[in-house]
Amino acid sequence: MDNYVITIARGFGSGGKQIGLDLSKRLGIPCYESQILHMASNYSGINKDLFFQVDEKLRGYHMIKRLMKSHNSDDIVEPTDRSFISDVNLYNIQAKIIRELGRNQSCIIIGKCANHLLRDYDNVVSVYIEAPRAYCVKSITERLGVTEDEAHKMIYQTDRYRADYYKYYTGGEVWTNPVLYDMTLNSDRIGREKCTELIIQYLKIKLGEDILSKKGTAENDKALQQLGFK
């Protein structure tokens, strides 16, 4: 392929998003997180608020289970179908976009089960970022201006719904399982800046020293434009 992708899964407060943004600046490639939701809305015509409501969280578990029985898990249903705005279809639309990005553009994708969706792509480096609870609490209180008790609650709730979402859409896989990633990094031990550097070094080791020059081709950009992704 003429491009590469870095996927980042992250514990809440570990700095995974910040590491992704730093990688974006260092490598000169885009970083996608909430942008995936806007792309999905533009592509499908579905209100973006619906995508944000189910962003890495489950909603209406029993309805999802019933719909999964009636549709192939990878299918995107037609707008005339009653399940067009179901949680499963919203996920499948995002999955399509992530796979298209994986085929066409060098980028960083944060969350969204991206490591699972791109698990068979040979141009992907998948990373899980975590840190001790005390580090995450300190990061959240400083960044969001909340109390330590509020930060503990936010970490518990966010990590739980991310884990449940990942388990559901991957068919039972455990979000924190290190085997699912190329590397798992403790951002407290070496710092976020060195995490960025380590990921870049691993990227070159896995995909070759010349990998950083591959951004995608003009033909790939055209393919993304036709799908409404650029």
Please write out the topology:
Layout: E1 5-10, H1 16-27, E2 31-32, H2 35-44, H3 48-53, H4 61-70, H5 87-104, E3 107-110, H6 114-117, E4 124-130, H7 133-144, H8 148-169, E5 183-186, H9 187-190, H10 192-207, H11 218-226
Parallel strand pairs: 1-3, 1-4, 2-3, 4-5
Description:
It is globular and about 50 Å long. The chain has a five-stranded parallel sheet with strand order 2-3-1-4-5, with helices on both faces. Helix content is 53%, strand content 10%. The longest helix has 22 residues, at 148-169. The protein has helices at residues 16-27, 35-44, 48-53, 61-70, 87-104, 114-117, 133-144, 148-169, 187-190, 192-207, 218-226, and strands at 5-10, 31-32, 107-110, 124-130, 183-186. It has eleven helices and five strands. It has 230 residues and is α/β, with parallel strands linked by helices.
List keywords for this structure.
230 residues; 5-stranded parallel beta sheet; 10% strand; globular
Radius of gyration: 18 Å
| Spans where pLDDT lies below 50 across 5 or more residues | 66-72
Q: Kindly report the spatial arrangement of strands forming the biggest sheet.
A: 2-3-1-4-5
Work out the helicity level. Answer: 40-55%
How many separate helices?
A: 11
Average pLDDT reading: 89
Structure summary, number of beta strands: 5
The fraction of residues in strands falls at: 5-15%
**How does the major sheet shape up?**
5 strands, parallel
Q: What would you call the shape?
A: globular
Sheet/helix structural class = alpha/beta
What is the ordering of alpha helices and beta strands? Answer: EHEHHHHEHEHHEHHH
Gap from first CA to last CA: 19 Å
